[in-house]
Amino acid sequence: MMVGGKVKKPGKRGRKPAKIDLKAKLERSRQSARECRARKKLRYQYLEELVSSKERAICALREELEMYKQWCIAMDQGKIPSEIKALLTGDDQKTPQSTSTKTPKNGKYNSTGISQSKSS
Predict the structure, then answer these.
(1) What is the pLDDT of residue 43?
(2) How far is it, in rounded angstroms, from Cα 85 to Cα 103?
(3) At 114, phi and psi to the nearest 5?
(4) Are strands 2-3 and 6-7 parallel, antiparallel or unpaired?
(5) Is residue 86 within 8 Å of 92, Cβ to Cβ?
(6) The model's pTM
(7) pLDDT, tens digit, for every residue of 72-120?
(8) Using an 8 Å Cβ cutoff, are 46 and 60 in contact?
(9) DSSP string of 9-38?
């Protein structure tokens, strides 16, 4: 069959995929895989940092809890820890605190400097 001076073979309709298209598709696929691996690596780094910071926070809270337990034991024996005396007298400057002073979530303190929560 002749169309416009060119010989056409019957039965071969549509677009024939070229090797260039196949190579380009393969390269796009590789690039996409590289980007996916990079995103995955960043996501895992972020999650590892998050876990690490949470573990540090847990350790700090455990230390604080242990300190409060020791205070309770001391008070059960009739002794008042120097940190509590300092809080009650308002003499915070003389005694170095082992934990950092944090503002409570609601931002309210009572007259002794102890935070007040809405639930109590």
Answers:
(1) 98
(2) 20
(3) -90, 140
(4) antiparallel
(5) yes
(6) 0.49
(7) 999 999 988 888 888 888 865 554 555 444 555 555 545 445 554 444 3
(8) no
(9) -TT--SPPPPHHHHHHHHHHHHHHHHHHHH
| Residue from 106, 68, 105, 69 nearest 87 by CA | 68
Backbone angles phi, psi at 3, to 5 degrees: -130, 115
Q: Give the Cα separation of 86 and 63 in Å (integer).
A: 20
Q: Tell me the β-bridge partners of 76.
A: none
23 CB-side CA count, 13 A: 3
HSE at residue 106, side-chain half, CA atoms within 13 A, is 10
Q: What is the dihedral of CA 85, 63, 105, 82, to 10 degrees?
A: 0
Structure-block tokens of residue 61: 């809270």
Coil, helix or strand at residue 103 = coil
Q: 57 is written with which tokens?
A: 């926070």
Angle between helices 82-89 and 19-76 (to 10 degrees): 90
Kindly state the helix (H) or strand (E) to which residue 2 belongs, with its residue range: strand 2-3
